Every structure is written in C-alpha cells, then in structure tokens.
Amino acid sequence: VILQGQKRFAEAADSYRQALVYRPQDTLLMQRYGDCFGHMQQFELAAAAYQRALTLDEDNPDLLARLAYMLHRLGRNAGAERALAKAIELKPGNPEWAKLLEQLRRTGQG
C-alpha cells in the first residue's frame, strides 16, 4: 500500500502478486493489484485482476465498478454497462457511476 501511495505502481503490483501467492483468496489484495495496472494504463491486466476478484466476491459493487471503468477504457462498452448496472443495483447513489452508466447507454444506442 505504501508503494502504491508513492505512485510506484509497478513495484506495488509486484508486491501484490507475491502476496497473492500466499493469499490467493484475498479480494482486497486482488483489487489493489488491479488498481496498480489501472494506474499504469494496463487496462487488460487491471480488468483481469478485477474479474478474478469477482469470482471470489461476485456481488462486490466496488469491484464491479472498477471492472466497468476498465472495460470502458478497452472499448468493451456492453460489458462495462452490465457490470456498472449491477454495481448500481447493489449500491445505489453514486453519481459518478450513474453518469458513466448514462454515457454507456447513450453510446450503445448510437
């Protein structure tokens, strides 16, 4: 977490990867691992980390939203819309999520 806070994302990702060897069921570690890739604009790796974490905690709205943002960055808007809609269903009231969902739905109609 310290490395991530210092914006040393590659080092932080490596630390999280090593920790996940010993704690593969830790969704928070997996989320932080994905966050590092997101900060490094490695959206495919970030999405994969979030998807793996969601296999352990499929109703985690924050993981779903993170996945949605990465899928959107990858141009996979249909998947992003599904993930974000589920996140909002589980945890309503986030204006950023609502704004992106509206944008995704408009894009899908285009």
Written overview of the protein:
By secondary structure, the protein is mostly helical. Helices cover 79% and strands 0% of the residues. Helix 4 (43-56) runs antiparallel to helix 5 (61-73). The longest helix is centred in the C-terminal third of the chain and has 15 residues, at 95-109.
Number-wise, the strands total 0
The helix-and-strand class reads mainly alpha
Detail the poorly predicted runs.
none
Q: What does the main sheet amount to?
A: none
Strand content: under 5%
List SSEs in N-to-C order: HHHHHHH
Work out the helicity level.
over 70%
Global mean pLDDT: 93
Number of helices: 7
Radius of gyration over alpha carbons? Answer: 14 Å
* N-end to C-end Cα span: 41 Å
Shape: globular
